Amino acid sequence: MRIFPANPLFQGIDSGSLPALLDCLGARTERFERNSVVFAAGASAPELGLVLSGAVRVERPDFWGRRTILGRAEAGETFGESFSLGLSGGSGPAPVSAVAAQDSEILLLNYNKVMLSCTSACSFHTRLIRNVLALLARKNMGLLHQIDLLTRPGTREKVLAYLSDRAEQGGKTAPDGRGVVVEIPFNREELADFLVVDRSALSRELGKLRDEGLIRFERNRFELLRGAAEAL
Amino acid sequence: MRIFPANPLFQGIDSGSLPALLDCLGARTERFERNSVVFAAGASAPELGLVLSGAVRVERPDFWGRRTILGRAEAGETFGESFSLGLSGGSGPAPVSAVAAQDSEILLLNYNKVMLSCTSACSFHTRLIRNVLALLARKNMGLLHQIDLLTRPGTREKVLAYLSDRAEQGGKTAPDGRGVVVEIPFNREELADFLVVDRSALSRELGKLRDEGLIRFERNRFELLRGAAEAL
DNA sequence: TGCTGTTCGTTGCAAAAACAACGGCGCTCT
DNA sequence: AGAGCGCCGTTGTTTTTGCAACGAACAGCA
Description:
homodimer; four-stranded antiparallel β-sheet; DNA-binding
């Protein structure tokens, strides 16, 4: 639970007043086991979730079997902002689902209560709203980024762009100094769904990239070699 | 200028105190002629724009000639929220450009000033922030919606989904009652860029749809006939 | 050990999309 | 009137993608 004060959602809020604030927000924690849905697309407006442990996958099913993975929230991250707010009245159907990627513990906040002023007891409410605003803006950038990936003209470009991103954010230089190592939170099928390409096409392209000496990989561990970024 | 009080950005704010607020925000209006850039991708963090007259196209160029059109802000709408906020310090490079689609008049707000508390003179600042939050959430939903379009499996699906959307939002029943008429703000090339498909593929598909009796069209005026929605 | 389920690479084939080039139509400007 | 230009449809060709199916490697488990 030490995660709370550290979270951007509660930045600038005295940890002593957190319990009162959480109470005011109708916060509750729930456990979800792997592959269970936190909230489902089509259901009425969900809540704001903060992952305490585990991880959550945000995805959008379309009505013939496909799914698109929109993102992943690891422990300490939030998901589901922008709904109920973005939905006009506050209660339209959610366009996405959230699914526990592992057994998870999640703090759920009632979004309406987040937005509406509460009694003066919650002096930090205004600060909270700013924090949510910042979060939303960040999410927004994230979506823009995803659109950036999706609009790449081909599978190869998508993969390279994705790996480059990961490398910039969390890459470590390889032991032999020949490249950058990144680990991705997806398996092949999930990655394909995330990039919206066919799994086999993805495998094909990864193979080509390996043969051309641009990358090396094993499972979800990828190594970008010199030239991979330039090949974009 | 009557547009101000009506705008969601200023909802709940006494129109009498608007001038003071605007002054506090470093607001200024500027004119842009057709095809001139309001702010460019890569430049440092832009501002929040409110279209007073004309229209603005938000697009993202990638570094080999392609562009993706992310949206369009007509008179009365805002654009460029989420930057400078989403950008960590408040001054990273913007990932998108805004281009005047017509001769336009635009109110520009300094985003930092929007976020930072100002002197007590601006009692409406808090309300403004909430309004921005709502706007951002809405934009967020819009982006989600766009991802929804982009992830459709083919050109046909993209086109139909796009037209259906437009029809739901602003469609009028056709004079002969045989369908719904929508006018779109794009020409063919722009529409192709918006949906991220080839222009010729778009034309081909439109032709097929016409031949199959699902739609009729001329220029940027489309008519969705019965069955078009079901064909999705 | 043997069974089973999952993940991943591979490949042939069919469908779809991108590319490129051309022609028509309507507009504006001189 | 004629030239220039923007917008749109059309079509042939090449390239890419999606689909389906198979097999290998591996992990969990009785």
